[in-house]
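Example 3.2
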Amino acid sequence: MAATRRFGYTWRMEPTTDQIAEFVQQVLNAAAPQTLFAVLFGSGARATMRPFSDIDIGLYFDHEPDLLTLGDIAGRIEAHAGRAVDIVML
């Protein structure tokens, strides 16, 4: 199996739920400090990600961010994880 570059390290396996959550938290702290909480759900939360799985994240804010901020959050996570990101506003 070929190694893949994800989350700043070289992985021989898919990233763990904890690794995904840690990076999402870093991105939210930097890009959207108004985030009250985030929920990782779907295959990333169940640790059943497949090669083409996306990362599903529910976000709740104290005030709704603009679309540029949401795009920035998704783009940072996608660039680092090498996967599509689906953001759901809670």
